[in-house]
Specification:
7 helices; 192 residues; single chain; six-stranded mixed beta sheet; alpha+beta
């Protein structure tokens, strides 16, 4: 149920029937707005007719939303998001104003970026897309667990260095094809 006592949103902002959106999702999104210190536009919450099969947007009450954090760089927004309760975090750089999918799924947190080539999964991909490092994440909120650090070290070892694979030239698991799909503003953040 969409509450009517949110500080930063009205029920109409959720673009869904009152009973179609999870109450805790609404409060957590309101808290995120407070954390980033700027407005958040909700593009979509509950949507039974759109999105892929099995999308969290189709669950009622819906615990997912596509949002744009206005007047805030994506890296700053992601720092606040990563410190929050979100179980699914996706970044969509191709939207007119780049934004995020957030949901409250249970289990290990899932990360992805929607590029021109489709969905690419993983925290490293998400961090690269918005211009953050693992150190930035550690400074953003609760430190990653020992299990996360072990998994990251394993993945970094497997993905380290330069290769040439199906995505073309690939460095640290990020292919040139993926970066070109992000465009110059996001795909070449250090202008090298």
């Amino acid at each position: 149920m969409i509450p009517d006592n949110l500080r930063h949103f009205t029920p109409a902002d959720f673009k869904a029937p009152l009973s179609a959106v999870d109450t805790s999702f609404c409060y957590d999104l309101d808290a995120l707005c407070e954390t980033v210190g700027g407005p958040i536009r909700i593009n979509c919450t509950y949507d039974p007719d759109g999105h892929a099969a099995g999308s969290r947007h189709k669950i009622r009450p819906c615990d997912a939303g596509d949002i744009v954090v206005l007047d805030t760089p994506p890296a700053v927004a992601l720092r606040a998001i990563l410190a929050g309760p979100w179980g699914g975090v996706g970044f969509y750089p191709h939207w007119n104003t780049p934004g995020f999918h957030l949901d409250k799924r249970s289990g290990p947190r899932k990360y992805w970026v929607r590029s021109a080539d489709g969905y690419v999964y993983g925290l490293a991909v998400l961090l690269k897309a918005v211009g953050l490092t693992l150190a930035d994440v550690e400074e953003a909120g609760p430190c990653p667990s020992d299990a996360f650090r072990a998994a990251h070290a394993f993945t970094a070892k497997a993905e380290a260095g330069f290769t040439h694979d199906a995505g073309g030239a690939t460095s640290f698991g990020i292919s040139i094809r993926f970066l070109r799909g992000l465009g110059a503003a996001l795909g070449d953040i250090d202008h090298d």
